[in-house]
Each structure stands twice: as structure tokens, then as C-alpha cells.
Amino acid sequence: MENRGRVIFLEEWLVQNSVVDDSIRSRVASSPSSRVIIRAWNDIRDALKSQSFDHHHLQFLKILCDSQSVLHVADPHAKLLVSILSLSDVSLPEESYPLFFRLLYIWVRKSSRQSSLIIDSVVEVLTRLFSERFKGRKNLLFFSEGIVLLGAISFIPHVSEKSRTVCLELLCKRLDEEYHLIGLSGGHMPYVLAGIGYALSSSGKIYFVRLLDFLFEMWEKKDGPCVSVSNGLMILHLIEWVLSNYVSSQANDKVNLLQSEVLGCSKQSYSLFALLMAAAGVLRFINRSGSNGFMDLRKSAEKLIETVARQLVSRIRSVNYSVIESKDSFLSQCLCVATARSGSISNSASLALCLAFALLGEVFPLRQIYEKILASPAHINEGSLLSDVQQHLSSVSFKEAGAMTGAFCNQYIAADAESKNIIEDLIWEYCQDIYFKHRDVALVLRDIKTQLLEDLEKIAESAFLMVVLFALAVAKYRLSPKLNPDANLKISVRILVSFSCMEYFRRIRLPEYMEAIRTAVVSVQESESACVAFVESMPSYNDLTRLKLHHTWLTDDVQTARILFYMRVIPTCIEHIPTTVFRKVVASTMFLYMGHTNVKVARASHSIFVAFISSGKESDQDDRSSLKEQLVFYYMQRSLEGYPGITPFEGMASGIAAVVKNLPAGSPSIFYSVHSIVEKACSLFRVDDTEGADLMKSKIGDWEPCQKLLELLVRLLSVVDVQVLPSLMKQLAQVVVELPKDGQNVILSQLSQHVAESDDVTRKPTLVSWLQSLSYLCSKGTNKTVTEGLQIEGCAAPMERGPLSLNGIARPIGTALSTHTRTRYNLQNKEDAYAGWVLLNVLHSLNNNCNKGQGQATETSPALLPPNAETDAAGFVPKRDFFPAASLMQW
């Protein structure tokens, strides 16, 4: 501003604060060398001496004007320019006059003390040029540069009253007679408004009122300038600048005059849009000044804004927003921008509602655009739609969306309860509309209108940010223990549902987003009914898989993003979800998206399974336990059928770990899980005998997937209960001995490390003996011989088993190892026989311990004796070292 100690060209300042097109921004700030500038002045001085003006003189004028930011025009230079303009015998080119005006304007604005004689001479020249030479001509550039120069001269503090009056009279006359020139090009509006601003800051009452009349009436004239948000912003900042000058010069009479003429009983001929922006300019000045001495002025400005908002709300609510009149549509945009730029403003229910309507209908007009596309999908005018969308993306309204949202949230916070309910309903319904319609639009525009779809999603991304900030305001100021608990729960659920609808448009991680979710989830967790309401709002399995407009659940990214949101929230309140609801609503969707190609979604599905298996409610513990057992069987099938490729190993591993840790000891589901992993590992790995046992081959051509499953089995050795451990050890051993040498070394190495790091004193001795025997067997003989030696009656090797049977899995493992006579040895030599004997005795001992732990009154099975072993008198086998020293494991 003028009192900030720096020179300001008012037209440039207005443009910079109005976010208008770059095409009408300030002149190019070229910086020619001082030599070029000196040469230009010398050449123009030669024109005066030679009494001639050629084309190259015009070029030097342009160079000087383009150097406005660095150019200093002194009194001698101004006198030179006036002298050339006063030449009667020289015919100056028409395009040279705006350049002369611009240089004189630079002199007026940059010189600290202009010569009064030169000022008077300039005024005389301007009077002659405006009244005679260009009378009746339609030169827009001459008009706009002349207006800003006249205004600037009238603003000079020490200008003579005569020259000031002549300038103001000439300016007002030119505006009244040639206002239609302003509408010919929007790029010249800043110059006209700057001239009016200078004049308003210097004029007396008579010219002050005339200038105000023109400023607020020209928008309503038939051939006047077009209204636009950019022009409105320039009016806003123009009034702010003028008021600043009034206060700095202590012109209180002009402040009162502005209040009475504009904010008080304004004339019927004044444009409502211009009055609205002027009131916002007044508020902006007051808020930025930090003074409390303008209370009457503030009240007048706020009253005008509230009146406009109330009229808009009454008209908008009476019709469908899609058929709102263009005038009201534009006015609501202006109200949004004005509120955002003005700063602090008193709260008003009408203003809050109006801002909500404007944001949803004008700033983020997705619903209107979607309706155009879906109305006739086969006849989309792509060029026209794309142009409209891109124009909106570059508009002032869209660029100011963040500030508008802030002002809107402030108004919402202070609104009454009824208004808050209405506004919340508007926002939540908007979110659901965008979700459903964007799915259809994305399907229509897929592959053929990608640019249009990308631009639409840019608008939607900004709309998502607006919803986040609004939801945070709702969460902070509505979710209070002082309010009705039922209302709190309803609001919390609606926040989460709305976020799920907009999740597809979330591109960044926002702290406000996380805070709003956290607040809503904490509220929902307090009530089972709220949890149920949230879960049941999730699209059902039938809706997800129903083919509507050729939507498929696997390729519908918008729907997938929404389901992902639910899957991330559901584990946080899993304890409060009844078993029946989980079975009916969640389970089928969870299993469906386990097979999704999006890793995030698949992993989230496994997280839900883990959360449910780990949960427990005393009220329905039996039903929950039963459902857990049932889900495990399908979980293993669904997970393993997509592995490797779709199923993320980490997610599946966490699910299996949850099963082992949370289901009852000896559960058939755990036996089934172990057996399924073993069979999957075997199916991934086959040894081609014709290629040699040392060649590892896989169905997918990679050893890693099989290795991960075997590593999982190794980790389970320390997790499964002792009833399942014998079965796991036996099946893992059968798999390991089937591996070629390289594979055996990898797994045995991992087994050694795992056992060595174990701190379980109960099972570690057993695992050490088992591992020593397994290591020895892997180092001796062929895989086929060893495998046959490990086979136990009734339990074929995994390679030879048929389809799984739940009865077979549930059968106690001890029945296969109960007596000495049911063991079949088929080993080649004494050492091999003894190694097999040790391995089977380990499993046999574990089985007996399991039976004792279960309180079974069965007779303990006798120990298995090694083949051809001699016993002493007490029936014990004498201590012997049947293992070659080289085969012992080093611990």
C-alpha cells in the first residue's frame, strides 16, 4: 500500500492480488542495460531537435516502457516528453500516445517531488489531446493509459487545485462518455480501476460521488464491462487501498461518505456484485489494520454481506441447485471469494448455508459435470467439456478453494444447531453422490477421455480436502460428551462413511485426516450399535459382485478404495462387532478381496482376519469360537490358492500365526493349516528325477515362494501347541528329506539357527534331538529311501496323499504312534536305523505328553527300541554312540 514505503503502480497491485490471467498481468520486467536506456533518451531528444518522429523513435519508446520496473523518469525527461507532445508541426503515430502517457505516469509515481510547472504543462497537453485530437476515436489503449495518468496526477499531494480539478473533470467526463470501451477488453480494466482509485483518494465530495456512481453502476449498463470474479477481486482490493489512504491522511469525512454512499442506503442502480466486493474490501482493511475504531464501518459491511447471503439462500433453497440461475450462481461465487479474502467476519447462519451451497455447486461443481456426461454417454462433447473443466481449474474460485473452506468452517462452527444439521446433510450427501457418479463417469471415460477424467479428479481431490477440513471441524465441535450420545454416534458414523466415499481421491497423508478419523473411531468404539451401523454401511457382497453398467469388483478402483477404507477401520472396532454381523457382512467381502490384485487391499483383508481371530467377546464366545474354526478352513484355501502372485506372504503369515496363537490347543483348524502349508510347499516344488536330485525346480520357476512357506513352518515350531507339534515336526521332516541337497542345506541352516535361538526350555531338547536326526538322515542315503523310513502307517507322505479330510486331520496324531508294532522300519543300515528310531521316539514322546496333558487315562506307550538293540537287565538300551562324529550338529 501507499504507506508501506515503496512505490506502487496501483494497476499492477490490483492484478497481482486478483489472480487473473497472466496475459493481463504487469508489463514484462525486462532489464535493459543502462547504455540502452541512455541511448533511447538521446534518440528521443534528437526527435525534438529535428522536429521529426520516425519508426525507430517509437521502438525506443517501447523499450523505455518495457523497462518500467527499473526505469526512473526525472523532471527533464518529463519536460522532453511534454515538449514532443506539444509539437504542432509533427504528426505523431497514434500508437505512440499511450507510450508517452505511460512514461509520464512512471514519472508521476516514481518522482518524490515533481515540478509544478511540468505538472501543469502535462495537464494542458492532456486536456487538448482528449478534447480535440482524439475526439470520437475508439482507441482503447489511449483511453485506459489516459485514465490512469489523469488519476495519478490528481493524487499528487502538491498539485495545484486547478490542475487537480481539471484532471478529475476530464476523467469523469471520459468515463461517462466512453465507458463502453472498457468492455472491449478485460485486460484494460486494471488501468481504469487504478485511475478511479487514485481519483477517489484525492477528490472532494462532488467528484467522489460521481466516481462512486460510475464504479458501481457501470456493471449494470447494457454495453458496460462484463462481471467476473477477477473484476470483483480488483474492486475489493481497490476499496481496501482507498480506505488505507483515507486513514493514513486522516480523511475521516471520506470514510463516513463511503460508508453512507456504499454500505448504507446504496442506490438501486448500483451493482449488487460490486457492492458485495466493496463491503469485503472494507472488512479486509479493518481486519488487517488491527484497529477497533471502525465498529460502525464493520457493522455496515457485515450487514450488507449478510443481506446478500440471506437473499441467495432463499432463492437457492427454493429450486434444485442444478437449475439455479446464472446470476445467483455468479453471486454465490463472489460471496465465497469475498468471505475468504475479507478475513474475520461475524457469524451468520445464512452466510454459512450460502457458503455450503457455493462450495458444493460452484467451487466443486462435479455433480453438474457428471450429469452432463451421464445424460448422453454416447454423445459426449469432449472438447467443450474439457475446455470448461480446464477453465474452471484455472479460475479464481477454484484457486481460492482452501481459503473459502477455512471461512466456511469458521461459519459452521458458530452456526446454530439447525443450520449445522442442514450443512452436514449437504456435505455427506455430496460425498455419496460423488462416489456413485464418479464410478459411472470413470467407466464411461475410461480409455477414451483420459485427460478429461484426470482434470475431473483434480477437482475431486480438492473437494476431498474440503471434506476433510469440514469433518475435522465437525469432530472437534460436535462430538462432545455434553451433546446427545446418540447424535454423537450418528455423526461419527456419517463422517467415516463420507470418508470412505472420498477415499479414492486421497493423494496425500494429512494430519487433519488422521485426526478426524481417530476422533470418529473413538466415538464409534463406545457403542456396539454404532459399530454395527458403520459395518452395515459397507457395500454388500451382492452389490460388489453384481454387474451394473459392466462394473467389476476387480477393476472398479473407486469402489476398491472405499472397501480399503472400511478394511482399515474395521479392525479398530472388531471387539464390538457381533459375530452374526461379521458372518453376514464382513466375512464374504473379506475373502473376496483377499484375491484382489491390489496388494494394499489384499493385505488389509488379512488384517481383518487376524483381528477377528484375535478378538473375543464374553457375550457370544461360543458362537465366535465356532465361526473362527469355520473361517480358518476357507481362509487357508483362499490364501494358498492365490500364492504366490496375489496373496501377500506377510499377510498370510500373520493370519496363520493368529490361528495358531488364538485357537484352542489341538484344534482341527490348526492341524488343517499346517497340513495345507505343507501340501502347498510340496506343490510348488518338485524334483525331476531325470535331471538329478541336486537340481531345484519349481512350477513357477522360483525357489523363493516355496522357501518362504518352509520358513513359516520353521517359525511355527516355536508357536504351535504340543498337541500339534508332533504332526508339524513329522510333516516338515518329510518335506525336508524330499528336497534336493541345496534345498536341504538352506532349510537345515534355518532350523539350526531357529533352535539355537530358542529360549523354550520345554521343547528345545526335543527339537535338538529331532534336528540332529533329521540332519543325519538328510546326509545319508537317497531321498526315496529316507522318506519311506519316515512313513508311519496311516500317514502317507504329503506327496502321496489324496484330498484333505477333516476327519483325518482331527484324528489324534497319537493313534499313529501308539505302539511299537505299528512302526515300520525300512532303512538301509545300522546308523540309518538308529537315526530313524531317534526321530520317531521324539514324536512318540511328544504324543505321550499330549495325552497326559489332556488327562487321558490311557496306558503310556512303551518306548520304541532301535532295530537289533540289546537291552540290559532293566530293559534299558546301553549308551552307545550310533552317530558318526562328522554328522553331529555343532551348537
UniProtKB/TrEMBL annotation:
- Protein known as: OLC1v1019530C3
What's the source species' lineage?
Eukaryota, Viridiplantae, Streptophyta, Embryophyta, Tracheophyta
